[in-house]
Specification:
Layout lengths: L6 E5 L4 H12 L3 E6 L13 E3 L8 H8 L3 E4 L6 H6 L1 H26 L4 E7 L22 H20 L2 E7 L2 E2 L8 H13 L6 E3 L5 E2 L2 E2 H12 L7 E3 L5 E2 H11 L8 E3 L17 H7 L7 H19 L1
Parallel strand pairs: 1-2, 1-4, 2-3, 4-5, 5-6, 6-11, 7-10, 8-13
Antiparallel strand pairs: 9-12
Helix pairs in contact: 1-7, 2-4, 4-5, 6-8, 6-10, 8-10
The protein binds NADP nicotinamide-adenine-dinucleotide phosphate and ligand G4F.
Length: 323
């Protein structure tokens, strides 16, 4: 009998979103293939459906597409840390920006070889709104990027639109606002806080050093947001969508929620590290996800408080193992 399973290829499968998206797609009976970078463990020995590639080097993307034979490609790979992008601007432009062009070109050629259409999702970011020109930000809000990372994402956004319009490709952008989880990288502020809360509570750490705690973000749960990625690719017509909760909180609010969950007052436990400040800051982001709600039927489920508690509980478990 012919194999009727839908096939997805995920770049950045080892990251936070790759983790949740893989599980989401497997539950829907997809055959999931993934690209991992050379920083992944077990170098050169990836499994049957895992491939080594780097978006800074497009040489083997075509071969990977031939092997994976995907119906859907989710491009999640990126140098995704905003602060780091100021230290590595050229690398970030290459991977997070031009890397997307490499993938789009590889898919365009693959489509001709394979005689089939691939649906392409680009992980665009609310950082593109940067120094915001209106609030809340929607699909029609102009971009004002404030970091090398955001500039690279703007480039990738427009290349995705350009390939859709020039070559009639099914390619779209999900403009996702910040989303977090117990799988969040430890260098991002929410996870940095939840990990420190757990370790301070168990006596493994004394202090937490942070940068600008007045910054405000529209924070949601990654497990909710990856569903929107999938829903976008199920539509007949490829369009770009904002995905956000519409609720804004400061880093200070996250400190209250996370330390409060374990009964600690953070006032004497948190210190300022000027090295964590960015040359240009994005002060506040707030998304308007009306289009995603109306056209995709998408809604966030996990609240800000639930998210903070979920992350602290997870890190308490890790800290207990550590101690
Ligand atoms: P993440 O945890 O940082 O994951 C990024 C992934 O990209 C990792 O698997 C990483 O693998 C891979 N990667 C990095 N450099 C690569 C390269 N040169 N070649 C191939 N793979 C490379 O990010 P995330 O939070 O899951 O986010 C997923 C995507 O959405 C990213 O593109 C991010 O910019 C974007 N985004 C995220 C958010 C958010 O709030 N999380 C919001 C908007 C947009 P290694 O670790 O092995 O290098
Ligand atoms: O957690 P952050 O590093 O996330 P940021 O910069 O908003 O970027 C994340 O979300 C974007 C979506 O808008 C993604 F595109 C991007 O890939 C990434 O996932 O910082 C959040 C805020 C910033 O204003 C930062 O200045 O927290 C502030 N902050 C304060 N102290 C800190 C720290 N950020 C980090 N990483 N570390 C600190 O010690």
């Amino acid at each position: 009998m012919a194999d009727t399973k839908r096939r997805a290829l995920i770049t950045g499968i080892s990251g936070q979103d790759g983790h949740y998206l893989t599980r989401f797609l497997l539950k829907r009976d997809y055959e999931v293939h993934g690209i991992v970078s050379c920083r992944a463990p077990g170098i050169g020995e990836a499994g049957e459906r895992l491939y080594y590639a780097d978006l800074a080097d497009g040489s083997n993307l075509g071969q990977i597409l031939d092997k994976a034979n995907p119906d859907e490609v989710y491009n999640l790979a990126a140098q995704s840390h905003v602060r780091l992008s100021f230290d590595l601007p050229q690398y970030t432009a290459d991977v997070t920006g031009v890397g997307v062009l490499r993938m789009l070109d590889a898919i365009r050629e693959y489509q001709q070889r394979a005689g089939k259409q691939v649906r392409f999702y680009q992980a665009s970011s609310s950082e593109m709104f940067g120094k915001v020109v209106e609030t809340p930000q929607s699909e029609s809000t102009p971009f004002y990027p404030r970091s090398p990372y955001a500039c690279a994402k703007v480039y990738a956004y427009w290349q995705t639109v350009n390939y859709r319009e020039s070559y009639d490709m099914y390619a779209l952008n999900g403009i996702l606002f910040n989303h977090e989880s117990p799988r969040r990288g430890e260098a991002f502020v929410t996870r940095k806080i939840s990990k420190a809360v757990a370790r301070i509570k168990l006596g493994l750490q004394d202090k937490l050093s942070l940068g600008n705690i007045e910054a405000q973000r529209d924070w949601g749960f990654a497990g909710d947001f990856i569903e929107a990625m999938w829903l976008m690719l199920q539509q007949d017509v490829p369009e770009d969508y904002v995905v956000a909760t519409g609720q804004v909180h400061s880093v200070r609010d996250f400190l209250d929620a996370a330390f409060g969950h374990v009964g600690l007052d953070w006032a004497n436990l948190v210190e300022t590290d000027v090295n964590m400040f960015r040359p240009a800051e994005v002060d506040i982001l707030c998304g308007d996800a009306t289009k995603a709600q109306e056209k995709l039927g998408w809604q966030p489920k996990v609240s800000f408080g639930e998210l903070a508690r979920m992350m602290v509980d997870h890190d308490l478990e890790l800290a207990r193992q550590e101690s």
